[in-house]
Amino acid sequence: MDRIQHLIAYLHLQPHPEGGYYAETYRSTETLPRAALPARFTGSRNYSTAIYFLIPAGQFSAFPRIRADELWHFYEGGPLHVYVIDPGGSLQIIRLGGNITDGEVFQAIVPAGCWFASRPAPDTSYSLVGCTVAPGFDFEDFEMADGTKLTAKYPSHAGLIAELCRT
């Protein structure tokens, strides 16, 4: 069994709607009431959630956005490029990985409301990362990008959006 298949089996990973594979590893048992959260949240939320996220070479995580900050953590494999488009249209490319002398970072934040996508760097066979969301992730807070609409809003990123959208 190769390393990717071993990780999928050992970590009990399932296909992720964005692409790649994931498993939720933590969901706080305590919740924040709706009244304690910003107006963008429609109900109560767990304090925090965490997942493992594996993306093999040749696959990508398509552009979504969520209503909470998401902290990404590097675990193993090669570097992962995380593409973040903020509401004003600025693009940031985060190189999540273990080679900090080459500009990679062990952790990075994707701020709430930003569109983001990711894929393994060239010559990387896979990237195993983790994502922690606070307040905790809920699919009510998740929006998958429509490539046509995202391109219309951010035409300067049309090529990247075409590469990293499924619709």
Q: Quick one: biggest sheet?
A: 6 strands, antiparallel
Spatial shape: globular
Q: Helix segment count?
A: 3
Contiguous low-pLDDT stretches (5 residues minimum) are none
Topology order in helix (H) and strand (E) letters: HEEEEEEEEEEEEEHH
Rg result:
16 Å
Q: Number of DSSP strands?
A: 13
What is the topology, as strand order, of the major beta sheet? 1-2-5-12-7-10
Q: Distance between the terminal alpha carbons, to the nearest Å? A: 33 Å
Bin the strand percentage: 35-45%
Oligomeric state of shown chains: single chain
Overall SS class: mainly beta
Provide mean pLDDT, rounded.
97
Helical percentage: 10-25%
Structure characterization notes:
The protein has 167 residues and is mainly beta. The chain contains 3 helices and 13 strands, in the order αβββββββββββββαα. It has helices spanning 3-10, 147-153, 158-163; strands at 14-15, 21-27, 31-32, 45-46, 49-56, 64-66, 69-77, 80-85, 91-96, 107-110, 115-120, 126-134, 142-144. The strands form 4 sheets. A 6-stranded antiparallel beta sheet has the order 1-2-5-12-7-10. Strands 9-8-11 form a 3-stranded antiparallel beta sheet, with no helix packed on it. The chain is globular. The termini are far apart. The mean pLDDT is 97.
